[in-house]
Amino acid sequence: MNVSPVMARIGVHRRASAVSSRLSLFRRVSWPDAIAVLGLTLLAAWHLWPAAGSGRLPQNLDFMLQYVPNAAYLARSLADGRVPLWNPYLGTGMPFAADPGTGTWYLPNWLPLSTLPLYAAVRAIIWVHLIWAALGCYLYLRSVLRTGPTPSWIGAVSFALTTWLPGLAGMAAVLTAISWLPWLLLLGHLATARRGPWIAVLGIAGALQLAAGWPVASYLSWALLGLLTMAFWIGDTVGRPHPSPRPLGDGATGRRGARSTGCRPLAHSPTRSLASHLLPLAFGALVAAILAGILLVPAAEFVAETNYAETRPLERVHTEGYLMLLSWFRPAGGTGSLESSQLYVGVVPLLLALTGLAFGRRRHAVAFGVVLLVALVAAMGTHAPLFGLLYRWLPGFRTVYLPARVGLVAAFALACLAALGAERLASARWTARHAAVVAASAALFVPLVFGQFWLSEGYDNFRRLLTNTGRFTGGPFLTQAQEAHYIAFGGLALLAIGLAARLPRAWTLAAALVLTTADLGLARSQAAPAGFDPEPWYRPAIETGRQLATMYPHERVTGLQWHGTQHFLNDFPRSAAPAQLPPNLALLTGVRDAQAYNPLLLRRAVYYFSRAARGQKDDHWLRIDDFYAPEVRRLAVRNVLVGGGGGSDGVEWRVTDRRLSEPVVVPAGGATQVVWQGAPKGATQVRVVSYLGEATGVPQDTPAIRLTLETASGEEVPLVLRAGRETAEWAYGRPDVRRIVQHRQAPIALETRIASAVGGAFSVFEYLATFALHVPIEVRAIHAQMVAPGVTGYVEGVWVTPPDADIARPAEGTLALAGALPRLRIEGGSVDLQIDEPERIVARVVAPRPGALVLADAFYPGWKATIGGYPVPIEVADGLFRSVSLPVGEHEVAFVYRPTSLRLGAMFSVTGILVVLLILFVPFVRRPAPR
């Protein structure tokens, strides 16, 4: 049997006798390693308990309205013995398994979703992957950088267990994908150094990361792996040999130079070319892509059919989240911290990273220093030229979307430098001069933070930051407690660094470990991620969905816009906008909801839906108040009137109010105007959701925002929003704001908890004001003006109730509906829907004359139709739906989803499995005969 030259070059042909030596990495696990692993596990559990402890899940809008519903649908499908290929519940339907964000093909999640209750399964997924990230970073440091257990533990904690990565529990798909980053780097180094089966393992890990639900992590992981491989090779080949200290902490006796029994070092051979180092990685990446073919091929088709393929011009990127150095001093509160540009790493790890950068092993320090610098500059977005160059010229870089996401590469590099710094502190060659250099580097880092802040935020905020830090009284950027925290732990860390030359090695490492743990632990207690109890939160939607599924099992429905202050989305911004069945909860409840996250629907319906006509083509959300009544009926939607609290009899019933404006900013001392199309002929009630900025000095009841409704006849109707009555300070829940605010919290407040790179974590309130109009008026435009001096206003939306609104008060627990076109229809004929499954629809149709049978579900490649068992072509109806032509008579019509892209992708995945088996077993096939 001959092996191809390519496979021969990557080492697939090596003898089986070498396999045991390749696994020597995992053969020797010391007691310090076991204790470190246990400590990382316990610390991860402690971090997650507030957000994902017993009876809790992370409070994050994407998590609550996207991740949990997706997991619910996947769990239901697996329980039925099938993989969900089509999602019939959002809008007019869309592929499910082909959407990379659903994580359908991420096999590790199948076990908990198949065996545990839904909320427990989601909780287990979060816990396991945070621990997986910490352990992967620890093993990478022990094996690749050859640091001892204590420095490796410090590095792993600095990467995985500060506040930012546990904060990503609210973006579980992101956390899951990032947890594979250190493992991919570790396996990449193994594949480069030892080749053979490690290439197959690298490919498997890469495929799992691709399927985890956040492809950006794969892009950044492979880019980081290639960059580090090149940096290490250059250091080995060009640089002068530099002996590395022994791994520290294994069997240490407290004396410098004590024995060490660390893991076997992994190093690159300086005699091999750079191509021979990169070739195994390229082959591993190819194996990963082929293995993930069952996702990637259908995903490519899905992206081509949606607006996912549209990219933003570079000019718009500057409005997105970017990373500031100040964010490294802001403990990430809430969830989704990476999306909020927060990457807190701790004061002590930051000083240790400066130590590693200045005095760590030359090859590693330079490599991770370069990675850190490049990642930081790229994460600054358009405030630095590098991001623009990468955005224009680097293939695939636009998928990163938010510049701050590149910061996770910087966080990993900094964690590795922190481990190298902790190792260097315990070196026998550490002197007072080294400590002075670290102290000077820390002092220089402060003006660098201020300078980058000025560049990013402008002079006004820079002046506020100077005042904030100079007076040591707390302010909008750093609280007094945080400033005290930085001074205390920074001083203690510098003291430990200064005394390291005179302390025994064990004492130095113990001091670094204790200070790091205390630093990060205190930061976590100050900014613990928020959680919610899923049982009561989802109960209203589940109960409503159960009733709707019984009444209208085959139709799409929409719900109520607003039903009192007990709206079960009242913890989130713009909660006056979602309906009784919030978008995407249809997946959880098992009913079809038109108001959903469906990019396929929006791209197809772009030519006649009013939301697209308003120039908002990049908005994936579809809400019923954005459409005119005729278009709603064309969508075959039933308007369901659902109940909530607030009425005199305990139940309030309304049809959907008409939203007139999108969120607008009203500058201090200025005015703005919102003009819209299709306003109702009359309005009997106006609702406004708004908040104020920098309004701490505005007294109670002071007029703050003046709204003027301009009627068709040219008359003006003024509406005044008063501070503390109809609107109030947006950061009222922040302690440093609340103690100086002069107006109280408004009576109807919609609360959320946000985290900001410059403002910390605090409660934010939006306010609902309702104005009754004496006579119905025809609104033509609305003007908003700030009348409170020096205050900026934020009008999140204006809604009106039309005069023909059907406000009824039926008995508790009943539902009413408005008419709509049926989902399956034929003009003049009758339709009996017999089977209505996600991937299979069968109906008995009687056609009195030749005509078109229209199924108001999305037209999409992969759907096949048959009439009486014979295939027929599917045509597009109204540019969106599926339609077949029927002759006269009674017919059985079937629609089945059998995508060619899935079969092709499955063939790729099977090929990938065969390649992996070939790599794993070729050494055994070629075993030479014993002599």
Radius of gyration: 30 Å
Helix fraction by DSSP (H/I, runs of at least 4): 40-55%
Note the beta-strand portion.
15-25%
User: What structural class do the secondary elements suggest?
Assistant: alpha+beta
Q: How far apart, in Å, are the first and last alpha carbons?
A: 21 Å
Structure summary:
With 931 residues, the chain is an alpha+beta fold.
Architecture overview:
With 931 residues, the protein is an alpha+beta fold. It is built from 29 helices and 27 strands. The strands form seven sheets. Strands 8, 9, 11, 14, 15 and 17 form a six-stranded antiparallel beta sheet that branches. A five-stranded antiparallel beta sheet has the order 20-21-27-23-24, with no helix packed on it. A four-stranded mixed beta sheet has the order 6-5-7-18. β25 and β26 (881-886) form a beta hairpin. α10 (181-194) crosses α13 (274-291) and α20 runs antiparallel to α21. The radius of gyration is 30 Å and the shape is globular. The model is unreliable at 1-27, 240-268, 560-580, 642-656 and 805-817 (pLDDT under 50).
